[in-house]
Each structure stands twice: as structure tokens, then as C-alpha cells.
Protein 1
Amino acid sequence: MSAGGAAPHLGADGVTPAAKGQTTYVDAIREGLREEMARDGRVFLLGEDIGVYGGAFKVTDGLVQEFGEERVIDTPISETAIVGAAVGAAMMGMRPVAEMQFIDFISCAFDMITNFAAKSRYRTGVGVPIVIRGPSGGGVHGGPFHSQNPEAYFAHTPGLKVVQPATAYDAKGLIKAAIRDDDPVLFFEHKFLYRRIKEELPAEDYVVPIGKAAVRRAGRDLTVVTYGAMVWTALEAAKTLEAEGIDVEVVDLRTLFPMDENTVLESVAKTNKAILLHEATRTGGIGAEIAAVLSERCFEYLDGPLVRVTAPDTPVPYSPPLEEAFLPNAEKLCRAARALAAY
Amino acid sequence: MDLTRDQKLELYRFMRLNRVVEERLVNLYRQGKVVGGLYRSLGQEATSVGTAYALAKGDIVGPLIRNLGVVLVMGYTPRDVMTQYMARATSPSGGKDCNLHFGKPERGVISPISMLGALVPVMAGIALGARLQKKDLVAMTWIGDGGTSTGAFHEGINFAAVQKLPLVVVAENNGWAYSTPFRKQTAAPNLVAKAAAYGIPGESMDGNDVFAVHAAARRAVDRARSGGGPTLLESLTYRMKGHAEHDAQAYVPKADLEEWKRRDPLERCARTLVETAAATAAELEAIDRAVSEEVDREVESAEKAPLPSPDAALQNVYASAAADAEPVMLRRRS
């Protein structure tokens, strides 16, 4: 990941172009896709405007020229058909990667994902190795239908795996791991990160294993468990809090299901206090699940309440002041952390 | 291509098998041995058998719950079906799912889910996956008149048409979707009219004439195999029982049932075979006897099949690792 000083934060203006030898989050995903397509003839892509146009966010830019229309398929506006066709092709032994142009549109394919793909291995013994990926998250004033974080619906569905990378390294390593996985994987990208973060990536092939969290910052006083773009928010807050004498540990889940409970437990058993931070709305979110896990599994280690810092239970509003009020940020996190540290 | 005498007799045998298996399932249902509902295809056997019989080895089907004849043609046994309905460990789904919800691509069958229409895009994907692997196969799936109202049906058939995939969609117009009549399902005059909207060929067939069904299905399968893309077939037939065994279908006009009973597909097939001298009445009776004996043996064997062990409930959610039943609690030292 980028050095702490280079860490961008939500609210940062403009786009930071990648320095020579550095790879942005969006390029990292594309590199991961390209390498897997080159390595494995079973891998193909399908989605809306992903071929000739290169995708709404250019994640698949250039891939149709390299791999042809057979392996980079422009589809009708039909999320059910996109995921349904991916499911069928996966049953035939292919490794499809389906793009949702905005992850908000994943609701249009909900049945295919939660009923067809997720349950297939359990009820019929037929695995469905598909990847469904797309841009999630707010901070770009996209309004109620281009800003959502729907990961919790899917973490609640047995049979699916759910990942969300926070760094360019993880974006590449996790998309490759997702493609190689034998089960359906939902890969939530954060659109705010696409061109705002960059780092030097290894030249050699690597994967980031699904189901492994990462400690992004070590600290003694409290643990912030988070994922996606909020990892950067947590790191920004940690710097502010450090100056106030509060030493924050930041755990980046990377995989939301199956969750790396041990890394979270280990951290909280050390700091004895935890904040669950996510951009998605509050009720029934990933934070609630982590709180339940901590309460069940390390109750005796807790020296304070389990605190959630999340978006409120509202749709994502459009107008900048409204969206700013909606989104968690470093300031809101700092307030919660100070109260918890003083508890 | 004309059917041989043996093939004609085999069509008759599969339809008889379809019917007898269901009759025995009704007995098991009344004895309380079937877990959950029982879905009949009485009067629709010709559609299932005639269409599936038009396929070749290597082709893949996605049947629905009334397509018992399809899975029998594809090589699943009456015992498989009965152990499924009785939720046994040795059923094709191992007790994980009900009735005709089973299948594997290597057995040529993709399991349906209960959400109607969902199989259409998935079967398009089967055809797409096969084409990407340069495998020559035709995918075939079935949908009821009710299921054609779903978005998944539309998206799947539209995608298959755009991609010119080798997919045959058989729309079984049996007049009823649970208790909802055709006229409340669509304002279209019939289902085959919808083919034009997708830019694909459509053909209507007498769903109670197995030879007519087979011939139409054969044309669609040949077109798909030769690169002509998908076809929508409409089978005009009638649902002779309720939605499921518990449903006495009081909403269905008696006169309709009486009229369609006269068009019973098994009796029509038998009559045609005898009238065209393809078979004698005695030969058909011998087939009936053999089927009846076979199904009796299969029922006996299925009833002896064990129920699944409770541990299996946690298995096979993912390719590796069983689901955790109970979390481990950390205790504070000192």
C-alpha cells in the first residue's frame, strides 16, 4: 500500500495520476483480469459496455482488442441475463467474470446470485465459479442509485464469498484469487479509489488469499475494523488521534465473508476496545456482524462498548452537503474514538 | 428424419413410464411418504417426452417440476425421482432439495430453482459456455405460460437471440399458472407470438400429440445445431390436475377437463401406433406391464433408502470447509 503520507482520503479533490512504475486501483483490477485471461482460456468477461467502450469506468479498457469479442462480451442491459449466463457457462467449466456497470444494479440480478449461484453446490453438487464485480460506494455525488454499498445482502447469503479491496495491491491480488476460486465471489470495488490511490506492484504473479484480513496500522488503545475506502478514512483519523495520544490499530477485513475472525479477535483481545466502521448503512451491516462475533467470542476482553461508525439508515443522498452528512469520515470517526478511548 | 418403429415404441414407453411413476408417487403421497408437495404432469407427458427425445447425446436440458418425462428420457431412473420426493440420502440431491430439483451437467440435466424463468438465462449460459469451448451441443429448457411473464424469461431469451445461441425454449401452454388462467397472464393471443419480438423463429405444436411434438422439436434442435440460433416452441396442452396434489382445482371448468381428457396423449399415441400398424395392442400392453413391474421394483427399493444424516446439513456450501455450527469462545487469562 502507499506510504502513510501519500494516503488520500474521502473528500480529496481531483485525480492523482499514477507516477511511473506505479499502478492505480483501477489499473490493478485490469491487470489482474488481463493476467488471468492470458493464463486461463476459461476466463471470459461479460457486461454492459465493457468491450468496445472499455466499461463505464474503463476497468476493462483494451481487453476486447487483446482477447476478442468472444471473451469480452458486450451484453444487453440485462443483469439477470448477465449473471444467469455466467452461471450456466460456469457450470460448463468456464470462469466468467460479470461486470455490474454500477454495483447498485446488482439488485436486478439478486435472484440469480442468491438463489441460483449461491445454492447450486449445496443442493445439486454443481459448483458455480463466477466473479461478479463492479463499482460500489459514494463520495462522488452519484445519488441514490450510483453510490450504494450492498455487500451485507450478500454476506448474509450462504454460498457466496464477498471481498472488497482497499489497495491497488489487494485489488489485483483479490481479483485473481476470486477468478481462481471454485465458488461464486462478489468483488466490490470502490469507485472513489479507482484513480486516487496507487502503488508499485510486484512484477511476478501473486494472489491475495480470500478470507485473510490485514492489520494496516498497529496500535494499543483501540481497534478500528473496517474495509474498502474506509480503510483510508481510518488511517487518516489514526494520524489525528495519534497526536492526541490515542493509538489506533486498523484492521482491513479485505474479505467480508468468510470473515477472518481470528485477526479481528487477536487485535481486539490486545486493544480491548473496538469501533466497527463502514460506509454502508447501519442496521444489519457488516459492523453488526462483527459486534456479534466479538460479543460471542471475546466478551471477557472487552473494556468498552462495541461502537459502530457507519452511514445512517437512509438512502444515499445526492446533493454534496447531504452526502457529506451521510458518509462516515475521519472527523466522525475521531469523535467516536475519543469517546471510546475515554470510556 | 422419420422415427423408426423402435423409436416410436420408446416414445410410448417413456410416456407410460412418466404416467406410472406419477401414479405411484400419488400413492406414496397419500401414505404420507412424500415430503412436501407433488406436482403432476398428467396430460402433458407428450410435451416432455417428445421434446427431450429430439435431443442427441451430449445435449443439456433444464427442465421444470412438471417435466418428469424429460429427466426420464435423459436417463434418470424412477428410483431417483422417488428418493427425491421422499427426501432420502441417496436421492440425486442427497435430500438437499425437493422433487425434480436435481441434475448435473455431466448427466445432461441442469436443476431448476423455484423462481420461474431463471432457467432461461442459465441455459443460455450453458449454450454460451459450450460454444466458447467449441463443444457442439444444444440446450433445451421448458417454461409454463405463467413463467413467460417473468423478467428472467425475457432477458434470457433476448440474450440468447442476440448471441444466436443454440437454445430451444419450450413454452408449455397448459392454460393455468396455479389458479391464474392464460388470459390473466398475457394479452398476447398465444405464446409463440412472442418469438417475433425477439427476432427468432417460433412454432406452435399440438402438445398432446407426441409425434407432432417430436417433429417440431427436431426442427428446432436441428436449427440450433446448425447455427440458426434459438427457437421458441409453444406446446398447446392442458393441465389435468391442480397446481400440486393438494389443489383440487375447483377453478378449472369441468367441461375443459372432459374435452382434454378425450385428447389424452398416451391414448392418442397408442391409437396412432395401432392404426399405422407400428404396433399391436398386445405389444403396447406388454410395454405397460413391463413399465408397471419396473416401477414397482423401483418403489420398493426407494422406500428402503435411508434418510440423510444430520451432519450433511452443514456440508457442501463451499468447495472446501464445512460451515461452523458453534463459535469458539475466547476466555480471558488470569
Note: The longest helix of chain B spans residues 5-30.
Protein 2
Amino acid sequence: MSAQTPTAMEQGLQTCHGCGLLSRPEPGVEEGRCPRCDEPLEFRKARSLERTLAYLIAAAVCYIPANLLPVLTTTTAGGSESDTIMQGVVLLWSPTGWPLSIIVLFASIMIPSAKILALIYLVITVKRGSIKNNAQRVRLYRMVEIIGRWSMVDVFVDTFTVSLIQLQPLMSVEPGPGLLFFAAVVVLTMLAVESFDPRLIWDSGDAAEEKEVKREVQHA
Amino acid sequence: MRCPRCDKELWRHKPDSFNRTFALTVAALVLYIIANAVPMLGLHAAGRSAFTTVVGGAHQLWLDGQQIVSVLVLFAAVISPALQISFLFLILLGCRRARPPFWVGMLLRHVEFTRTWSMIEVMLLGVLVALTKIADYATVIPGTALFALFALVALLAAMQSSFDPREVWLRVEWAEEKHRRPAEAKPTSEVTP
């Protein structure tokens, strides 16, 4: 007796990503379109792991210049000064501004790197057919999905700092080359999250679920 | 109810979804227009003052040679929220008909995308940080749009949580011809003389 819960894929059913309709493809057709909303249907997102990994590698590459190159250049009568993201965090640290400084530290430095690492972990465990900690892994995925957007904070901070401080010749602020790379990291990691198919986590089985079923069988 | 496998909350019927969401969407539409039409932030320093709107911020980035980032900011802070609100508005408007037309489904299919990329709440946090930074050099004047944006964030969240896409999907015209319901026969009272 199989200890697996039946899945829609095993039953030949497809869930539509657009409207949630469960449908059976026409005989002979492997993967068609949703009869209700016309979205292309697939049992699992096509080449999910490869695409996620590709976006992650691109994001990891951009992560380096994003943190090393300046995002803002301040020009005053006394000369000009360039700040990277980390220097921005340090500048923000003051008796009143420290909570915001911590938020920016999290949003701009910790979240992007944690996101890349978490997704790489998910891709590797799925690729290796791991059946452990499925529930925790999908929770990790959802957390990455929810928190990810907040990394954009720094892009907005720089946008409004630049557009407000235009007091030539006294003082002006210009965006630096790091900003483009940082924005790229945010967008690429968001695309990576979107390409990953969390259902893959369960496709090789689930240790916790099997244990549960075995226990039930013994009791019966 | 929770999913027995991954413990996520399952679908729940939301009471009076169409009317509540429609009211919230109309309010969000009004606030969105205000938020983008009036100045959001002002700055006062050394006898000079400057004002900016959200679009103004993106425009300045464009002028400074960061065109790609500028488009991204415009997309996340102006275009996506506009799509998010107007899609919901049109969907609910279409649902006022007994049989919602096919394009309602087309829009509904893309609501998730507009939600992912609409980042007004992130932008507001960014504005807050920028204000704190600038406060060291100059006097910052919060504009009307800033308050409108704060209210808009609350409205968008309420709008999304009261919206029940399944209610719409149950009523929408199917894309595939053979699944479409046949044109309903006219009520007998109209046919018989």
C-alpha cells in the first residue's frame, strides 16, 4: 500500500494558475489551456528549477557591485562624496534614527542575501529529492515571497533623496551606478521566487506524511 | 480550515464581497488620483524650496541617467497600483451584470501580477527613511499626497482582503466555446403575448 496522498498530477488533473479551476486535459493533448480563463496549463511550472537557478545566479552576480558601488553621490561646495548602501545605513544611525537604520540594514542587506541563500537551499533540496521538512520548506518559501518586496525600500529612499535635494549650487545628490545593480538584485530575486514551483517540494514524497499514514494503518 | 499538507489557510467565503470591495475600490481610485496629483514632499533650505510628487521622483532619476531604475520606480509605485485598482474596479463593474462578460476573466487572471508589483507600502517606508536623512540638512514639509498615500495603503489592503475572486470565477463566461452557457431563453412572460 502506498503511503502517499494522491496528487492531482497522478490523477491527470491540472490546476489553473489563473483561476484555480481543476481540469482534465483533452485526450491526446498533454497540456492545454484552461477552459475557463484561457491561461496556458501545465502540471508543474516548466523548467522551474533551471529558471529559478538562472535568476539566482544573475542576482548573486549583481549583488556584488550593488554593495560595492556607490548608490548616492552628494555634491556640496566643499566637494563630492559617494555612499554605498552600507554607508547609507551607518549615516542613518543616530539617537533618533536608529530604528530606521536597522530597517534599512534588514531590507537592503540581509533580506536580499537571505533570499538568495534560501532559494538556493530549496532548489538543491528539491533537486536531490529530499523528503524531509517539507512543511518547513514551504513555509520558508512563503516567507521569502512575502518579505522579498521590501528590499525595494532602498531604491525608493534614493529616488526621493535625489529628487528633493536639488539645491544647486549649494548641495545636490545624484544616483550612483550601484543603484541599477541593486534594483536588478531585487527584481531578479522576485522573478526567481515566481519561477519556483512549491509543489515540487512534495513530488518526491514527504517523510512526515508517510509516518502519519503508517501510524494510522497500525491503529486500524 | 487549513490545508492538511502544508497548513495554509484554505478558501473561505467572504461576506458581501462584491459590494464591500466595490466601495473600497471607488475610495481607492479617488485617493490614488489625489496622491498623484498633489505634491508629496516639500523641502525648505537656505531660502529655497522644492516640491516633488511620486512621478517627479522617477523623472529626476531619469534625468540623472538612471533610466532603467526610473522606469522600475514608476512601474512599482505608479503604474502597478493604477492597474491594481482599475482592474478590480472594472471586474466588479462587469460583475454587476447577470452574466459577466469574458474580459472580466481576462482581467482577473492578471490581478495577482499587479498585486505582486504594486509597492506603495514599500515606497512609503522609503519616503520615511528619506525624510529622516534629509531632516539633517533641511526642513521637510510633508505634502497632502503623503497622507493620501498612507490612507491608500490601508484601503488597498482592505480591498484585497474583502475581494473574493472565486465568487467572480463562478459567474464569469468561460473562455472555451463549448463550456459557455447557452443564451438564456427569454422569460416566458415576455414571449407570450
Note: The CA atoms of residues 79 and 127 of chain B lie 18 Å apart.
Protein 3
Amino acid sequence: MEPAKPQPALSATPPESAVSPVAPARPERRTAPRTWETQPVPVLSPHLDDYQSIVGSAVLDELRFLARDLKGKTVKMVNSTAVGGGVAEMLNRLVPMLGELGVVTHWDVITGGNDFFEVTKAFHNALHGNQCELTRHAQEIFLTYSEQNRQRMQFNEDFVVIHDPQPAALIRARQDGPARWVWRCHIDLSNPHPQVWGFLRPFIEQYDAAIVSSQSFARQLSIPQYLFYPCIDPLSEKNKQLEDSFVQKVCDEFGIDRSRPVVTQVSRFDRLKDPLGVVQAFKLAKKYVDCQLVLAGGGASDDPEGAVVLQEVKEAAGSDPDVIILDLPPWCALEINALQQASTLVVQKSIKEGFGLTVTEALWKGKPTIAGAVGGIPNQVIHNLTGALVHSVEGCAYQIRYLLTHPEFAAQLGRNGREHVKENFLMTTNVRRWLLLLQILLRGRAT
Amino acid sequence: MTAATTATLQRTPVKPFYFNTSAHLLRITKYKANTLAELLDAMRASPEDSIFQHTVRTLEEHHFLRAGFSNDFAYWALAACNEPSLAEALASVDVREFTSVAELRARLVQLLEKHLHQDPEIGTRAAEETFYFCAADSVVIPTGFQANTLHEFADGIRRVSVHSIHHHFIEARLRIKLMSNDFSQWLHEDAGLTETARSLNRIDIYTATLEDVREQIVRIVERALA
């Protein structure tokens, strides 16, 4: 996972000539209130019992039982950043939850100069399949900083979990003893640059186990590889159940008419998310069904290509008042949540995707979801059972029409999708996976 | 209710029923397939816990689906290979007809072989996505619920998770190597309710969610109590 980008200024950007003289009466479209221009104070992590109303007491009892044999054991998590990015966000929730279960978990962050993080960024991109020249100098920088971190840090815990490639060489700190070391890889390894992977692989194979986020990310390795799907926190601002009055307020702010169907895509203005394809699909569908399209995302203010894509999307939307384009800063989690909850359908028409957590979020909210059959999306969207998978603009348009005109079927997809997330992609499921893995490692069963 | 049944209900079951559940961690194996021919090879060579994962365990992972999903092989044959007749054949394999994974594997292999024999070219056609063989490492967990009477048994069924229902009702036959399940075994052997035990075995798990299955079990047990 990449670190979070700097926060852009807020802008709510309706398309040019948004108000058509023939448009039906609708709430006035306004920009976001001033209060949203500052980042909110972080909320405290919830406690395990707070999840009971969502997952049920049996799930929490299972966690407590699994943790029983691990009481007093210690875990060290190591990654490359304490703030920003999905890994830090996940650790912020996981570490206190394991602690609450009696598994004392420390979280440490490696340090390095700009030259180190330039090298690791290049490694990150190369593992995603991008071109890279692996020079001797780059290798030396990587190893030198790894050695500095190895000398600075102590590894006295029973389990050491190293996240992603940046700290992977810390395995050199491993000494003879019962401690178990795990490499948790959050990035797509399905098509890695051979030289860079060849450099990292000898480090990885010294671990006791590796964890990947998708079956397709697994490599041929001499150690066992476990599958941990990315997850969402149902109590986070982005996913908790909101008061309808707040949802209505957000819709009013952005000029969304909840009396008519709302089709939403939440994603950065990035070509790989195909926002232009979504506008085209919407226009095709709108010939037959009345609906509005909300494209909510960010990335246009801090990314030059994002700004170009945003402009292209606005041009494609033209003067259609039913296309509502919102460029939101990253701290608008509650507003994104409200937009998803207000939606009749959610679309994620990606051309390339990691896991697609926006799909997870939509499914969790019980929304009938139409998504591109790429990356980790097919793990979440089982076609015609938990959502609809599409491969083209036309396919997306057809599914919008079909689901809007068959609300009972759409509602069933929504119900199934929510159950699928509850079963497989919630924070509590991930805590269970961690406890299971630690137990398996403790018993020496990882083979 | 017959006099014999009434007498049975009045006595305490020989042994209590302990409700357990199991938790599973997915491990990715080295086997994968990009064609149906490769699927056949991997199906023959992969470890038993992998076959178990893609047939029995996947039912638990998708316990909320009432129809349209039977096992991962069938789903892949349809979604990635566009082979509806093969998908239908594979989907018709009922895991409850087998008391060993070896028998289950043999049946799946037989169906795939038959299909590829009819048109060998199908076997080499590239699938839209790869099938990755996974397996599960499992840990059995006690739930804390225990039944000393039929009333407590019905209450336990109502209160345990659907994973516990799956553990005792579906996974069990591969563990106990009998064409039955833990609930029916207990009802028959320890509570003397042979007909109730048989009724449970007739519940169709492929046209119901696990919540539906739970409700049906409770109804059958309550009928015996009535």
C-alpha cells in the first residue's frame, strides 16, 4: 500500500452549466461547508465489545478463545510509516484489538533517509510490474538503512511481523530461538520485476510464513503463504451506520435528489478507475431509466494527471445536471459514507484494481454493486449473487438499467453482499486470522 | 407422539452434546489451473485439504447464499471457462454423499474426465481467470454451549453461530466417516430419537442458507418435543 498523499484543498465541483432550464426541481447545489476544510480530530479506537451488535457474541467468544493460548505472548509489528496509508490505518485498529485480547503487541516503524525511501518506492513500483534498474548503489542504500534499523531495534518478542518490502531485510536480526517471523505483503506481487523480486526473495524465504492479500499475489516460495483479505472496520467513520438526517444533509449540500435513483462511484480521478467509462455507461442507461450519477473522489488537487482526468470527466458530463462530480479531500470519510448510504446502486468500474476496498464498503452498506472484474474485485463480487461483474461500458450500462428496474433482485444482491463482507472482510475476521496464524506458528504447524 | 417416544423424551440423553465450532485460515497451495486440463491435473494431485476447502469449506464461506452456488470448481467452470454443462455436473455433487475426501475427489475427477473426453479441445482453452488451489488450517473451538436435554439442545442450535452448525452438520460426516452428522448421531444414539435424526439428514443444504438450515433443525427438534 502506498502512503497517503498530502491533503488537497476542498472543492465540490459540479459540471459546467450544471443548472439546466429544463431540469426538474431539485435541491440547490452548494459547495461543502467551511467546517470541512480542516482535518477532524481522530476518533478513539473502539473496544472489542463495541463490535458485538454487528458480528454477534459468538464471533467475539471465538476470538477470546483463540487468544487464550496466546495470552502473555508478545508480537512486534514493523512497517515503514506511522501515519497515512492503509497499513498504518489497519495497524492502528489491529494493535489495540490484539492487546485487548491479551496478546501484547508493539508497533515499531523503521527510519531512513530520502534516498532509502526513493529506493523502496522504486522497489514498490517494480513489484507492481513497473520497469526498474536495480543498481548496486540502490541495493547498498537498501541494505545500509536496513542494517541501521536492525541495530537500533530490538526483537525480543515471540512473534515478529514485518509489513511490506521496506523493512523485509530486518529478518537478518533473527537469531536462533523460538521467535517466529512473518512477512505480511500488502502489495500486488502477481507480476513483479524479476530482478527486484530476485533481490528480495532470499530475505523473504528466511521467514516462517508469508501473508498475501489475494491468491494471485502468491509466488512460488519455500515457506507457507496465507491469504488475509484486506478488511474494513464497520465502526470507522467511513463505514458506520449514519443517522438518516446526516445523510440527507450531505445530499442537500451536494444537490443530490434522494427521491430519484442515485448511482455512485467513489474513487480517485484516475484513469484506472475509468470515471469516463462510468459517465458513458450512465448516459447509455439514462436513455431508459431515470437516475443521477455521483462521482465522488479526490486526487485532482495533488496529482496533475488527476486534474486532467477530472477535467475530462467534466467535459464528458457536459451540461447534464444529473451528473454530480465531487472532488473531496481525504478526511471526508463521513461524507463519503453518507454518499454511499444514499446511493441506490454503487459502481466501481475499475480497469485495474488492488483489492477494491470501495467495493467492500459498498457491499457492507448493502448496496447493489456493479464492478469491473479485475484485481481483488471477483473475490468480493460473485456475479449475480453478491453483485454484478462487468467487462465493458455497455455491460455496466445494462446492469445499471437491470438493477434499477428489478429492485427486488438488486436488494437480494445487496443483502448477500453485506453477508459476504460480514463473513470475510471485516476487521474482526482479520483479528481471527491473526490469532489463528499465531496459534499455528506457536504449535509449529506452518509447513 | 407414541408412548415409546414419550418415554424416550422423559429420560435424559446418555451423554451431553457439546457444541463446538471451527475456525479456518486459508493457505495458498502451489497448485493452480489456467485450463480445464490443468484443473484436472491439479484436482488429482492437490492435497485432500484443498479438495475439502473448495467443496465443503466453501459452503461455509458462502453460507448466506440460498441458490446458485455449490462449490468453487463448478463456479469456476461456469464463470471462467463458460462451460455450463460441466458446471451443472460439478454443482450436482453433494458433499453429504461422501464419507471421505478421496471418494469426493474421485467423483469430481470422473465428471471432469468425462466432460473433457467428449471434447478434448475444451481442455486446452484458456480460462478467463486462474483457479488457485487453497487449503485451510483449522482449529476446533468449544462454544461454551452444552445440551443435557432436548430442550437445551434446541436452545443450543438457536444460539450457536452458523459456523458451529456447519461444523456439526456438514463437515462432520467426513470426520466421523458416516453418512450422518453429529446432531443426528446424538439424537439417535444418545437421545433415542431415530426418526428425528433421520429427518435432520433430509434437510437440503444446497437450497437453503445455513440460517435456514438452523431453523429447519430447530423446527424438527421442536416437533419431537411437542
Note: Chain A has two domains: 59-231+427-442, 235-424.
